[in-house]
Amino acid sequence: MRLSAADCLRRGWTNLAANWELVLVQWLQSLLVVVLLALSVSLPLVTLGADALLAGRSAARVFEVFTARLGRLSPGVMLAGVAMLAVWLLSLLVHCWFQAGIYGVLAAADRQALPGPRRNRLLFRTFSLRDFSGWGGLYLWRFFRLLVLFWALALPLGIAALAWLVSLGVGGEVWGKPAVLGIGCGGALPLGFLFLVAGLWSHVAQAGLAREGSGVRAAGRQGLAVLGGRLGTVAVLVLLVAIMGLALALVFVPVSAVPELLLTGAPRLRALVRVVLFLLQGLPSALLALILASSLVALVRSEGRLEIRRKREVQTA
Q1: Is the pTM of this model over 0.90?
Q2: 149: how many CB neighbours lie within 10 A of its CB?
Q3: How far apart are CA 31 and CA 93, in angstroms?
Q4: pLDDT (tens digit, 9 = 90+) per residue, 181-194?
């Protein structure tokens, strides 16, 4: 039996409710990645011009010091660049390890429970730190290779989008506003569709990457097959999570504005409140991300079972 979007959402929510610790794990992953990315950016800034900025010099003088040190390519600058790349790579590995562990637990829980949309929550319970770290170590390089493949595919799309933007400016100067309208509409639709399909494919492929015997190639093919057959279901799941994310943002906007109004005379306390609100906002964001992930795991595994059943029927026919 094929699962509808509501069935996938219900089964995914039951899976996540049984393994609720994954929300905290996802929140911790986001926090660690943000810290590592901030550290990677701060390393070259400290080397290239932070001392001039801290000395109270003007922005023009800081920029002059920055460009002068960058142009000399001193050993300190090169070392800062290498350190930045190393921290970037570490952040990617941390992200992939957490994703591998999360999807490994979700896939194992979905496999453990019986097929169908309505199942008892206890049937999905499988989380433990030992299992999570085990899945993370087992599937780390799968998720890393998939991430590299995704960015390799996204690079031509980014170049095409840049060329489209340049053509808008050139077309407006050469042929006028009607050309800008034609180029804009003619390029926005296919580029937008390709970006949308690439984003959906990456989510679906991750959901299929944590099954036994899978790999980047198999998960990529399965992702395309699921999108080809269940594009509407995937789009509905993503749209529902996006709407919930928008509602969450609308809730936090007035909450974040209150400290700005009440704590204008206490900058340190206001900064502390900002940090606390940022950390609190990460929890529901992690929950929404895992709702989508667990729903897609349910969808991909149900489609995989149907495909296996079809192959067996063909072999026995």
Answers
A1: no
A2: 16
A3: 14
A4: 676 677 778 888 88
